[in-house]
Amino acid sequence: ETGVTQTPRHLVMGMTNKKSLKCEQHLGHNAMYWYKQSAKKPLELMFVYSLEERVENNSVPSRFSPECPNSSHLFLHLHTLQPEDSALYLCASSPSLASSNTEAFFGQGTRLTVV
Amino acid sequence: GESVGLHLPTLSVQEGDNSIINCAYSNSASDYFIWYKQESGKGPQFIIDIRSNMDKRQGQRVTVLLNKTVKHLSLQIAATQPGDSAVYFCAETISGGYQKVTFGIGTKLQVIP
């Protein structure tokens, strides 16, 4: 148990569906992140939030829409996804943005399958 | 672009033997390196880290070696156990402030009982 909880653990959705991934951290951290992990590819950073403000968007398609209502919760809203978006989506948090590369804690991920 | 890679995608070792997982990095400015373990169905978990002012760092049953000359990093696991079966990947970054982390692809370690 890392203190970062993601729901759902598994999600199957059609290309016309709208769904949301949820991440919650109980660590009192101020920075949260979304990563995409595809088979045989390195972890890809998607979005970075610090104190509820988005500080980075790594050229992610607009069909992925993040939301950070407070420092403990992070959402990833999905709509009109493509089959190639199927992957493990990981949420992480760190005490601050400055400690993002040394003290990041990951959730267990949501396994997304787009059909 | 800058990248972090691993030499072996899959490594099978007998229980009780030592495991060595290798990683090459390309950014000579990187000064902080991390090894993660990712078990099936779980997120990455920090194992051990090393800064560029060190060549070796030891943890519990794990040792990380850093060779800056050839930009090579290795993770050694002593007396490998079935619970060590997982994907291991390295990451490189620059310490101090907000810096991007570059992750490797991962090596799957299979422990044979």
Q: What share of residues are in beta strands of chain B?
A: over 45%
The dominant shape of chain A is: globular
Looking at how many chains there are and whether they match, the oligomeric state comes to heterodimer
Overall mean confidence score, pLDDT of chain A: 92
Q: What radius of gyration of chain B results from the CA coordinates?
A: 14 Å
- Round the Cα radius of gyration of chain A to an integer and report it: 13 Å
pLDDT < 50 runs, ≥5 residues of chain B: 1-8
- Principal-axes shape call of chain B: globular
Mean pLDDT of chain B, nearest integer? 90
Query: Based on helices, strands and strand pairing, what is the structural class of chain A?
Result: mainly beta
Query: Kindly, what is the distance between the CA atoms of the first and last residues of chain B, rounded to a whole number of angstroms?
Result: 40 Å
Helix content of chain A: under 10%
Give the helices and strands of chain B as they follow along the chain.
Answer: EEEEEEEEEEE
Instruction: Report strand % of chain A.
Output: over 45%
Structural class of chain B: mainly beta
Q: What is the CA–CA distance across the termini of chain A? A: 31 Å
Task: Please give the count of helices of chain B.
Answer: 0
Structural notes for this entry:
The complex is a heterodimer of chains A (115) and B (113). Chain A has 115 residues and is mainly beta. Helices cover 0% and strands 56% of the residues of chain A. Chain A has no helices and 11 strands. Chain A has strands at residues 4-7, 10-13, 18-25, 31-37, 44-50, 53-57, 64-70, 73-79, 87-94, 105-106, 110-114. Chain A is globular. Chain B has strands at 4-5, 10-14, 19-25, 32-38, 45-51, 56-58, 62-67, 72-77, 86-93, 102-103, 107-112. Chain B is globular, with a radius of gyration of 14 Å. Residues 1-8 of chain B have low confidence and may be disordered. Chain A binds chain B through residues 2, 4, 6, 9, 40-43, 45, 55, 90, 92, 97-98, 100-102, 104-109, and chain B through 3-4, 9, 32, 34, 41-46, 49, 89, 91, 93-106.
